[in-house]
Amino acid sequence: MKSNYLFFRTDRIGDFLVSAILMKSIKRDDQDAYLTVVASKKNYFYIKTLNFIDEVHLYPENFIKKIIFFFNLNKKKYKAIFALDGKKRSIYFTIFLKSKFKFLMTTKQLYKKIFSFFFKKIYLFFESQNKLEEIKNILDKMNMSFKNQDLNFLSDVAISSKNLVPVSNYFVLHFDEKWIHEDYIKKYTSIEPSFDNFDLFIKKLIAKTNNNLIITTGVKNNEIINNLKNRSKKIHENLYEAKFNEKRMYLYINIDFFELKSIIKECLFIITCHGASTHLASAFNKKIFDVYDYSQKNFYKKWNSHIQNYTYFYRENFIDLSNKILHKI
CA nearest 16: which of 52, 34, 40? Predict the structure, then answer.
């Protein structure tokens, strides 16, 4: 007989990736577990690709469709329901659906005060030690176990990157909009490099590691990316190649999340500004060099404390930052 578990994660992919540790633990511990995730447009298609998730629903926007959606969900009785995104809509659904265990994760103290009667446990972000301790506590309350193998929840997911990545022995530099000051949060310290400094950095990285380099980009191009394109050989619309002595640099332009996932799965390590790429690499147990703003250190330490093979850097001027990264490589 199925044990139904329902998860609300109607936000972003990066947030889901941390929650997936909990889902994988439940799937491993309960052989009858049937996992259903209510997702958003931002993470729906990705979640559908995961073999340990049994059912995925896109949260409806239309009011009438929401009513119908609720009654469809209400046909099942759930062993546990998790409002992991902390959104009002997820809280209301959770309150009125049938379940022995109900859990809420939120950043709002008011929610903990007014909704505590309806939940087995409410986890207030600023009261918790870190996200992994929250996950362990949930499992403990359901008499389930946590194992370190659950951290690497993508390790047994089949992904083929042979047709995507033309080389082996490569590391990744994820150069998205977070490196460009005007394209990111203005109050954060600028780490935007000049092209000459960025060019010198990637040459030093290749020389020090003696490995090939793959640079992946975000949704926006910038002057540095355009200069790299102009200096490289075009392989196809989204792929460019340049040679550095005996090694090669490949530049992937505007790839989607699934392609990024394939590239990270086979890499030696990744350099990135904190985001979904960080948690993807963590799920594959890759070595990570992660960059975030000093003002957010307490926030990110709660999210990142479970990550293995992890080195972080605070945002600062690019020359100093790049030298510190090179020193740690």
Answer: 40
